[in-house]
Structure formats: C-alpha cells, structure tokens
Design brief:
By secondary structure, this protein is α/β, with parallel strands linked by helices. About 45% of the residues lie in helices and about 20% in strands. The protein has one domain: Spore Coat Polysaccharide Biosynthesis Protein SpsA, Chain A. Strands 3-2-1-4-7-6-8-5 form an 8-stranded mixed sheet, sandwiched between helices.
Length: about 230
C-alpha cells in the first residue's frame, strides 16, 4: 500500500450520531489515511467508526490533546491534519494543504471557518475568526490545523492541557515560522452556538482565553468552561 501524503486525525468522544457521516465523506479519498482516536466514549462511537473501515484506536489518556498526540504517534503521512468530528473539509483539501504549506516561511496552516447555520450573528463570528486568523496568525482547532509530521515531532506535539491545547500549540509554532491561512473554509457544526446562543458562547470563549493569558490554571479553566456550557 502506498504511503499516504496526509494523515487526518480525528479525536472523538460520544459522537455516535455523526461519526459515520463524517467518515463516509473522507474514506475513499486518495493520498490520505484516517485515524480516529476515541477518548473513552460511553456510546458506540468506537464500534461505529471501526465498521466504516478506518483506523480506530482508544487513547491511553483522556483529553483531546492526548488523543491527538496518540493519533500522531501512529500516523504515517508526511503531513498531519487535526480535524474535529463535527467539521467538514472543503473539496480538494489535500492540494490546498500542500500548496499552503509550500508558501515561504510557512510552518503550519489552517482553514478559514464557515458555520452551518443561516444566522446573521454567525456570519459575524466567521468574519471575526477570519480577521483574527489573518491579523494575529491565531487559528483555533475547529479550523483544522495542519503541519508536517517532522515539525510536530520536533516541537513535542500538543501540551498535556485539559483546554487551550490548540492555542498553546499555535503560540509555539509562531516562534518557528508563519501560520498560513488556506484559501478555503471548513464547515463546522453550529451545535455549540445553538446550545447557548451566539453571544454567550462567544463571551465564554473570550473569557477562557483571557483567563489563560492571566495565568489561571488550565484545569480550573476547564471546570469553568464545563460549568458554563
């Protein structure tokens, strides 16, 4: 079997309702491998993913950071892409990823963000994300961060944090090179905005970031995030 160019690593936890649909859109694509890393689901996410025929492992430690590190440890592709289970990649994503990483000084990349709901306030969220990503080189995990496997291994992967692991990784990568924004968007589920409302969800996210900058321990931030959501 030919070595894949891109390893798509999908951390999951209790995603039985959507896991098959997201995998079915990827499983026949050429030049990729799919690695699903279960974080201890209490539903049948693990079994459903295995039935699709992709590689599925159980993370030895809980937490998204540990799941993504576990997936990266067994990946064979030259490039790693970390994909949330409720997010869809755009057409021709493989070539987009390769072209984005080929830009001068690019050490990692991510996509723009689109949210799958017809809501004007969510269009504003998308604009804010685009500006943040372009002006501050600060994409988040729901934008499908990607980078070469050698770079990921060199910087030591994701830090063992219960929250903000994507933010922390990007901060370290920025010291090594440019975070490039791909000229296409991933489409992510609106479920977290619908659950609490756009304003409250955005406010919580910004407060968590502020707390991280102020040095509040990530474990405490995680507890606060869980309580508020």
């Amino acid at each position: 079997m030919k070595q894949p160019i891109l390893s798509i690593i999908i951390p999951v936890l209790n995603e039985a309702n959507i896991i098959r649909s997201i995998l079915s859109r990827l499983q026949n694509d050429v030049g990729i491998e799919i690695i699903v890393v279960d974080g201890g689901s209490q539903d049948n996410t693990f079994e459903l993913a295995k039935r699709v025929g992709v590689r599925v492992i159980l993370s030895p430690q809980t937490g998204r950071a540990n799941q993504m590190n576990a997936g990266a440890a067994i990946a064979t592709g030259d490039i790693l892409l970390f994909l949330h289970a409720d997010t869809q990649l755009p057409p021709d994503y493989l070539n987009i990823v390769k072209d984005t990483l080929a830009r001068p000084k690019a050490i990692a990349g991510a996509f723009e963000l689109a949210i799958d709901a017809d809501n004007k306030s969510l269009r504003l969220v998308e604009i804010m994300v685009k500006l943040r990503s372009r002006w501050f080189s600060l994409p988040y995990g729901d934008q499908a961060i990607f980078l070469k496997r050698t770079v990921f291994e060199k910087i030591g992967g994701f830090a063992d944090l219960p929250i903000m692991e994507d933010f922390e990784l990007i901060q370290r990568l920025k010291k090594q090179g440019k975070i490039a924004l791909a000229p296409a968007a991933v489409l992510t589920s609106s479920r977290r905005w619908q659950k609490l409302g756009v304003f409250k969800t955005t406010l919580i996210n910004q407060l968590i970031i502020l707390g991280y900058y102020l040095g509040i321990p990530p474990k405490r931030l995680r507890r606060l995030y869980n309580k508020s959501s």
